[in-house]
């Protein structure tokens, strides 16, 4: 069964003026329901992750400032919006949704978080609309509970997963791989275990060739028993922030290739959706829905 964590912003709405562009997170499951790819049974609403699990990944002082809404204004500006209880509530539920997704991935092979992909949050900072790093929290949860011994993070958002790289820079059990726009945010990048920086304008053929040349050998070499996949669709040519030139068809082929590599080896994969900033919301939703369609075709 395809299991999908819903975005908790809709169960816990933000006050007027604080709802940054989140419409896609509502429209993605609505479109999948309309097409009959999923039913309400496929969707689950996560609770809040506990502090003990957060502190496996994030520094206590940083978390306490988030929790108590005392993060300095400069750090709030780095995140990109004013801190509020609703925003923190959303982040702790997103993190738990990714942990729950791991459990479903062990059972069904794959699971999704409609939100998530908060890869700019480091151990002691938030950045780029990311307060807590959902996939890093989930990876540390798996390691701490002896549910995994070797993890691969595949980050194909157009922006480097700088927070994830920083969190795991001294953790040999987690291999971080980021293929991203070289001249794009964040402008101060961290060092992943493997970074592939792409020049502006890279298109379908070059992008897919790089991925297909890299990923199989990466998996074969490091032998992960669990994979996290960040499936941002801000690689599209239509994306106003991405600076790459991929078609929707190539983005869909990217997802298919990643899933085929996981499925053929029997490696469970948790998927967080990451970014997408095309001017037309229909383009964002269609590209994200393709990720679910491909997973449904391959796994169910």
Please explain how this structure is put together.
Belongs to the histone deacetylase family. It is a single chain. This protein is of the alpha/beta class and 300 residues long. The chain has a single domain (3-299), classed as Arginase, Chain A. It is built from ten helices and eight strands. The chain has helices at residues 23-35, 51-54, 60-67, 73-79, 85-108, 134-144, 162-167, 204-222, 248-265, 281-299, and strands spanning 3-5, 43-44, 110-113, 151-155, 174-181, 194-198, 226-230, 269-272. α5 packs across α6 (134-144) and α8 (204-222) runs parallel beside α9. The chain is globular. Mean pLDDT is 93; it is low at 10-20.
Short description:
This protein has 300 residues and is an alpha/beta fold. Helices cover 43% and strands 12% of the residues. The protein has a single domain (3-299), classed as 3-Layer(aba) Sandwich (Arginase, Chain A).
Model regions low in confidence, pLDDT < 50 over at least 5 residues = 10-20
Q: What is the first-to-last residue Cα distance? A: 7 Å
What is the approximate shape?
A: globular
Number of domains: 1
Strand content: 5-15%
Looking at the overall shape, the CATH architecture is 3-Layer(aba) Sandwich
Sheet with the most strands: spatial strand order: 2-1-3-8-7-4-5-6
Question: What is the class in the CATH system?
Answer: Alpha Beta
Integer-rounded radius of gyration: 17 Å
What portion of residues is helical? Answer: 40-55%
Helix and strand pattern? EHEHHHHEHEHEEHEHEH
Strand count: 8
């Amino acid at each position: 069964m395809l299991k999908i964590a819903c975005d908790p912003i809709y169960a816990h709405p933000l006050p007027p003026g604080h709802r940054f562009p989140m419409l896609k997170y509502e429209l993605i499951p609505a479109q999948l329901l309309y097409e009959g790819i999923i039913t309400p049974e496929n969707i689950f609403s996560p609770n809040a992750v506990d502090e003990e699990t957060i502190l496996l990944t994030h520094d206590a002082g940083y978390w306490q400032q988030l929790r108590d809404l005392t993060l300095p204004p400069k750090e709030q500006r780095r995140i990109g919006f004013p801190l509020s209880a609703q925003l923190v509530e959303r982040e702790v539920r997103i993190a738990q949704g990714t942990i729950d997704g791991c459990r479903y991935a062990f059972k069904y092979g794959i699971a999704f978080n409609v939100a998530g992909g908060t890869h700019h949050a480091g151990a002691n900072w938030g950045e780029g609309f990311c307060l807590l790093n959902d996939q890093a929290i989930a990876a540390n949860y798996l390691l701490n509970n002896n549910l995994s011994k070797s993890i691969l993070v595949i980050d194909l958002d157009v922006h480097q997963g700088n927070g994830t790289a920083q969190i795991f820079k001294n953790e040999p059990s987690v291999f971080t791989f980021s293929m991203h726009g070289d001249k794009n945010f964040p402008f101060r990048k961290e060092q992943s275990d493997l970074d592939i920086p792409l020049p502006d304008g890279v298109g379908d053929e070059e992008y897919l060739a790089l991925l297909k040349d890299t990923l199989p050998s990466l998996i074969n070499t490091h032998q992960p028993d669990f994979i996290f996949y960040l499936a941002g669709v801000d690689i599209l040519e239509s994306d106003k922030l991405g600076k790459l030139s991929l078609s929707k068809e190539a983005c869909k082929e990217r997802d298919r290739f990643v899933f085929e590599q996981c499925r053929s080896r029997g490696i469970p994969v948790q998927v967080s959706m990451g970014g997408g900033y095309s001017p037309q919301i229909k383009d964002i939703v269609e590209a994200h829905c393709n990720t679910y369609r491909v997973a449904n075709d391959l796994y169910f």
